[in-house]
Amino acid sequence: MTTIINTHDMNSVMGIGENIIFIYEGHKEWQGVSADIMGSTNKRLTDFIFASDLLKEMREAVRK
User: Fold this and answer.
1) Domain ranges of the chain
2) pTM here?
3) Average pLDDT over residues 37-57
4) Mean pLDDT computed over every residue of the chain
5) Dihedral angle at the C-alpha atoms of 10, 16, 19, 22, nearest 10 degrees?
6) 29 and 45 in contact (C-beta within 8 Å)?
7) For the segment 21-42, what is each residue's pLDDT rounded down to a tens digit?
8) Assign residue 60 a region: left if phi > 0, alpha if psi is -120 to 50, beta otherwise?
9) In this structure, how many other beta carbons lie within 10 angstroms of the beta carbon of residue 50?
10) Exposure of 23 by Cβ count < 10 A (0-12 exposed, 13-18 middle, 19+ buried)?
11) Residue 49 near residue 10 (C-beta atoms within 8 A)
12) What are the residues whose beta carbons fall under 8 Å from the beta carbon of 58, sequence distance 6 or more?
């Protein structure tokens, strides 16, 4: 069974998302799994996901 969820709630995305698509201005900007988000080099995706300074610091800590 396939379920499509449209959300800005990143806790839900990271918790239940198996195949995640990031859409920017109506176009697919990025596609992958939640584990790939931490290492993504897509600027629009990372700017959206890691908007706060705290989240940016967490991302850098995980990447090291």
Assistant:
1) 10-63
2) 0.72
3) 83
4) 85
5) -10
6) yes
7) 999 999 999 999 988 888 889 9
8) alpha
9) 19
10) exposed
11) yes
12) 50
